[in-house]
Design a protein that fits this description.
heterodimer; A: about 210 residues; mainly alpha; B: about 200 residues; 10 helices
């Protein structure tokens, strides 16, 4: 494998598209649910969370892949945690500086990106054994795969729970007058889990190969 | 002492780590296939929580917080190191998990065998870091309160994983729609359990 690979080969394409569908980190691999569900009450925090996580996964994959040959395997977990924690601190400071209200709403969940299992999982499974560029693509793609689910869940929770999208009311007035009510249950934590359950159901009825025995 | 029990009950039932904040979800879904293993993981998580959170509290109180360095010299009173808290907390947790692992291996091989592979995994369990971050955010006033909070969070997590495992053992015999099998139904089950736990919210403590 001494030949130089082109920047956008078909392998890279597969690396990129896999996490968006057949290897989705949330619905198929069931990773990284920890820090994600609580931020899906509204669309805006979910969007910002998705972007932050994508950036952290992409760059931690890149950095670990660059130094993969110098890390002793016994202390690799600590090295990985330090790289991730440093990136998360940068993201946290940026969020505090530019979008303070959202940063307050996300509270501890920005810090919890550190223990997001997707990041550790990708570092262990991909970055430690691959070159920097594919690792970076893999990280970004996994971040996007995570972000998509986050955004779908947040979209439905905000739409059905408070009748808004990105803070703007979208349910017309006459519907409220005709007796339509916002479903208050959608705002509460349990519905995030049930929404994800339903997404998994739909996803797996499309992709029969993913069905568990 | 009254405060101790209030915080304990509150963190077990009302602000349960799993059902109210979704912390530690990954291992919660992945390991809850049998009651026995989830019991082991629950004990391990509680154990590590009770050690790491008070430790992080002391670090936060005497090193990281704004003005916390006063005890060295008054001229340090303006230093605010709280932006370092993520890295300090996770380093403490990783180090303590490693220490606990070696300690348990040496002094109680039977417990070590029971906890097995779970101990190293705990370092990246969101519930552990989450409890430390909540501790920092809520600014508890004494170490006793922090111990109550960490113990309660641990027991709440343990309770949640064991009860889910018990349900999953039973559900193997039911006719779940094929695409929903495994992970899908587990999510919906957790959602339903969380709705049940919301019943505790009305309690005023």
């Amino acid at each position: 494998m001494s030949q130089k690979e082109p920047l956008f080969s078909s392998k890279i394409k597969n690396t990129f598209l896999g996490p968006l569908n057949k290897n989705n980190p949330i619905t198929v691999l069931v990773l990284g649910i920890c820090s994600s569900l609580a931020v899906t009450v509204q669309l805006k925090p979910a969007l910002i969370m998705a972007i932050s996580v994508t950036i952290v996964i992409g760059f931690s994959n890149l950095i670990i892949s660059l130094i993969r040959n110098t890390i002793p395997s016994r202390i690799r977990i600590i090295v990985q945690l330090v790289v991730i924690a440093a990136l998360v601190i940068i993201v946290d400071q940026i969020l505090k500086a530019y979008v303070y209200d959202v940063s307050k709403k996300l509270s501890v969940f920005v810090g919890l990106i550190i223990t997001n299992c997707i990041i550790m999982g990708r570092l262990e499974a991909f970055a430690l054994g691959n070159k920097p560029w594919p690792s970076f693509v893999d990280g970004i793609a996994n971040g996007l795969g995570y972000g998509i689910i986050l955004i779908i869940v947040a979209f439905f929770r905000e739409l059905l729970g408070s009748g808004k999208i990105l803070g703007m009311t979208v349910i017309p007035d006459f519907l409220y007058k005709a007796g339509y009510e916002n479903n208050g249950l959608m705002i509460l934590p349990p519905m995030a889990l049930i929404t994800i359950g339903v997404i998994i159901w739909i996803h797996r009825s499309w992709n029969k190969t993913l069905i568990e025995k | 002492m009254e405060n101790f029990f209030n915080i304990l009950i509150k963190s077990i039932f009302i602000e349960n780590m799993i059902f109210a904040f979704f912390l530690g979800m990954c291992s919660y879904i992945a390991v809850s296939k049998t009651v026995k293993t989830s019991n082991g993981l629950g004990i391990a998580v509680t154990f590590v929580l009770v050690i790491t959170t008070p430790m992080n509290y002391l670090l936060n109180e005497y090193i990281l917080k704004e003005g916390a360095l006063k005890w060295i010299d008054l001229s340090f009173a303006e230093i605010d190191l709280s932006y370092l808290s993520f890295i300090v907390f996770i380093a403490t947790i990783a180090a303590i998990v490693q220490l606990v692992e070696m300690f348990v291996e040496k002094f109680s091989p039977s417990l070590y065998n029971a906890l097995g592979i779970f101990l190293p995994l705990i370092a990246v369990n969101c519930a552990i870091l989450g409890t430390s971050l909540f501790m920092q955010e809520r600014a508890y006033s004494s170490i006793l309160d922090v111990i109550a909070f960490s113990l309660g969070s641990g027991i709440g997590w343990w309770l949640a994983i064991v009860s889910l495992a018990a349900i999953r053992e039973k559900i193997k015999y039911s006719n779940v729609p094929a695409p929903l099998k495994g992970v899908g139904i587990t999510f919906i089950l957790t959602g339903l359990m969380a709705i049940a736990f919301m019943g505790f919210m009305g309690i005023k403590i």
